[in-house]
Structure to design on (468 residues):
């Protein structure tokens, strides 16, 4: 891999890329779209040497072979919605965007699978599954912008992990281009296939450091006949833990989401334009519970009876029950309004951590206290997918420019290590969390990750410097 700019090499690699892929697929200079210079992280833009936009797997492979031969690094890009800098270009690197590799290739109702191109937006995948009478359970706030290949590359989590698992659980097969330009096609459509190593797991969650995902085979799930939801106010966090246990026991496989929001989050959302908050301020914690059923005439009364039982048991201070899908959408609007935080709060640092469920409130109190001590006047909002141990944090110092990132990260991640959590629950490592990986992974684990990277990408061409 090169260590300094080389104008001759730059010109040679661009010439070779244009010859192999065509002028329309290789954008340089002023033609490079501004969006390809960064992702949704707070790192800021870094223009690539060129933005390459192939339309076939063979074109991706050709681009990788050319860049590898010239020692030019390649940074794969999907929907650019990542928050850790994993898709942000490196100086002198080629940005390999899959934005033109979109579409549903096939839906197999008998095996309940969908074969799809990696650049396809998640929402398009969801809508295609719905039209075919199925469900793609992966769902997150960036559904309209994120690409399914990027979801696989980061092993995205989202709102319904408690029922369906992470993205990894929804993938049966992959087609991948390796760092040397080789193509590995394992578009398996069978749930049971123990024929040797399950190679797809090398690439799911590796953030584009081991290969470029070009096509995927996704598992389809039965479409729920009804979706039910309740927004609840609780008197304390102990009631949250009790309510989660009661939901798992009483709702069983119907339980599809269990989201928790602390008071500062709730009060901030209430001031967000266009968001209607169905419950008043002043409660210790708020919870959104969703259940998906197979028969509304049976499951809706069951869900309501279960909720009433929790109120009678003293777990709820207040609650509002959905009466329509419009209500369910309104409830999720409260939870998804976090996407408006940049406009409401101004500059801040977002975090995605994992913790033991029982310890979350203690962590929240410790984190708020430590931030206030280190940065008087700092704000911190807490919310997340508590049912699967995932806590999100938005923290910053009002009016500070630049934000004191280092201090905020020291507090947040230092406490994560003390509480036995993880610095990344669903967003990946990328660049921003790489310095903190040692807080939650042993030296032996990190050494093995580096050995895998060196074995598959000995010249360090593919997304170098990310993750490990």
């Amino acid at each position: 891999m090169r260590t300094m700019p080389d104008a001759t090499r730059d010109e040679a690699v661009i010439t070779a890329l244009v010859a192999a892929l065509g002028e329309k697929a290789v954008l340089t200079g002023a033609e490079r779209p501004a969006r390809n210079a960064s992702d949704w992280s707070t790192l800021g833009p870094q223009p690539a040497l060129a933005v390459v936009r192939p339309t076939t797997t063979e074109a991706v492979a050709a681009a990788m072979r050319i860049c590898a031969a010239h020692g030019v690094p390649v940074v794969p890009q999907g929907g650019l919605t990542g928050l850790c800098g994993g898709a942000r270009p490196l100086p002198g690197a080629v940005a390999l965007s899959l934005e033109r590799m979109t579409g549903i290739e096939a839906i197999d109702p008998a095996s309940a699978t969908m074969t799809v191109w990696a650049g396809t937006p998640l929402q398009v995948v969801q809508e295609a599954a719905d039209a075919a009478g199925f469900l793609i359970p992966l769902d997150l706030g960036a559904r309209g912008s994120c690409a399914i290949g990027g979801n696989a590359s980061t092993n995205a989590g989202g709102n319904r992990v408690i029922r369906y698992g992470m993205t990894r659980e929804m993938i049966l097969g992959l087609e991948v281009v390796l760092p040397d330009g080789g193509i590995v096609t394992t578009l398996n459509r069978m749930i049971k296939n123990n024929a040797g190593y399950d190679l797809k797991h090398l690439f799911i969650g590796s953030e584009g450091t081991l290969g470029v995902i070009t096509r995927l085979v996704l598992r389809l799930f039965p479409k729920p006949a009804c979706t039910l939801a309740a927004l609840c106010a609780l008197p304390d966090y102990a009631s949250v833990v009790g309510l989660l246990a009661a939901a798992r026991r009483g709702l069983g496989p119907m339980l599809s989401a269990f989201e928790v929001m602390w008071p500062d989050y709730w009060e901030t959302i209430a001031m967000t334009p266009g968001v209607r908050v169905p419950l008043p301020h002043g409660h210790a914690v708020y919870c959104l519970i969703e259940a998906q059923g197979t028969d509304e005439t049976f499951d809706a009364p069951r869900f309501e009876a279960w909720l009433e039982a929790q109120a009678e048991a003293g777990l709820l201070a207040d609650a509002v029950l959905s009466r329509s899908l419009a209500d369910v959408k309104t409830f999720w609007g409260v939870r998804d309004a976090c996407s408006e935080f940049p406009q409401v709060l101004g500059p801040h640092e977002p975090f995605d951590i994992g913790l033991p469920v029982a310890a979350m409130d203690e962590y929240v109190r410790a984190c708020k206290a430590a931030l206030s001590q280190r940065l008087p006047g700092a704000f911190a909002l807490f919310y997340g997918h508590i049912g699967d141990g995932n806590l999100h944090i938005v923290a910053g110092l009002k009016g500070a420019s630049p934000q004191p990132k280092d201090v905020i990260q020291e507090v947040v991640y230092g406490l994560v290590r003390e509480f036995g959590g993880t610095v990344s629950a669903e967003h990946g490592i990328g660049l921003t969390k790489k310095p903190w990986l040692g807080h939650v992974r042993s030296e032996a684990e990190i050494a093995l990750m580096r050995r895998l990277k060196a074995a598959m990408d000995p010249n360090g061409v593919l997304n170098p410097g990310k993750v490990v």
Notes: The chain has a mean pLDDT of 95.
